[in-house]
């Protein structure tokens, strides 16, 4: 579904990503692992057109996106949940969710399935986003991305700053989404979380992919060493 080839990304004159190749097959969960500061979030921002990518290819279902603006990439079917969640604290949960419809020019309705996946949100529709816990905000951010029914869901550090019980809930939701046919790309540092949900993994260091493979055949100790802080 998503094919990245020879991707380079820059901040100013500094190269951050160096000829990245990465594939996400339809219906699979792919994880990009790595320490802080190695370029993982920059990679996701590159997919979304938020940083300078003068060289390489980003194809979604054989459609080249490398020169397309962010809104076109989103409308092509990419749902993106950034690190830090970026929900609107002064807006209610319901208002935050409705923003997910803006990808389709505000057309459509929020599926009841959203509240089946995240029942806590149904109880808090009138509560402001800033009054939610970190875990609840993360659930809201994922739900907002799902409102537009994306072909590809991208999650940047979904477990960051989240209590263990909510991490388990998010993991269950991700597996349910896979059963429903969603394709998911996750950036993560929490290896135990990935072992329970992902099909394929890549490891990044200093802007380069240094390892990849099937999670089922992963050498856990070796990968943990590569991503240890």
Automatic annotation (TrEMBL):
GO terms for molecular function: ATP binding; ATP hydrolysis activity; branched-chain amino acid transmembrane transporter activity. Keywords: Amino-acid transport, ATP-binding, Nucleotide-binding, Transport. SUPFAM superfamilies: P-loop containing nucleoside triphosphate hydrolases. It comes from the Bacteria. InterPro entries: AAA+_ATPase, ABC_transporter-like_ATP-bd, ABC_transptr_urea_ATP-bd_UrtE, BCAA_Transport_ATP-bd_LivF, P-loop_NTPase. Residues 2-229 form the ABC transporter domain. One of its GO terms (biological process) is L-amino acid transport. NCBIfam families: urea_trans_UrtE. Belongs to the ABC transporter superfamily. This is Urea transport system ATP-binding protein. The lineage of its organism: Bacteria, Bacillati, Bacillota, Negativicutes, Selenomonadales.
């Amino acid at each position: 579904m998503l094919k990245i080839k020879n991707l380079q990304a820059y901040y100013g004159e500094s190269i951050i990503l160096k000829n990245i190749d990465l594939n996400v097959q339809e219906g699979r969960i792919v994880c990009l692992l790595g320490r802080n500061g190695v370029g993982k979030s920059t990679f996701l921002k590159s997919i979304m057109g938020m940083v300078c990518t003068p060289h390489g290819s980003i194809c979604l279902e054989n459609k080249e996106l490398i020169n397309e603006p962010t809104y076109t990439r989103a409308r092509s079917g990419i749902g993106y949940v950034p690190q830090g969640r970026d929900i609107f604290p002064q807006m209610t949960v319901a208002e935050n969710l409705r923003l997910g419809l803006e990808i389709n020019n505000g057309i459509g309705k929020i599926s009841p399935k959203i509240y089946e996946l995240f029942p806590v949100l149904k109880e808090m529709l009138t509560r402001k986003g800033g009054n939610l816990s970190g875990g609840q905000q993360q659930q809201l951010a994922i739900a907002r991305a799902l409102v537009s029914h994306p072909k590809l869901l991208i999650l940047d550090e979904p477990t960051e700053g989240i209590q263990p019980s909510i991490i388990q809930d998010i993991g269950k939701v991700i597996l349910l989404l896979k059963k429903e046919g969603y394709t998911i790309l996750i950036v993560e540092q929490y290896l135990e979380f990935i072992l329970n949900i992902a099909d394929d993994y890549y490891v990044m260091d200093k802007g380069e992919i240094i390892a990849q493979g099937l999670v089922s055949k992963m050498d856990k100790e070796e990968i943990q060493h590569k991503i240890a802080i």
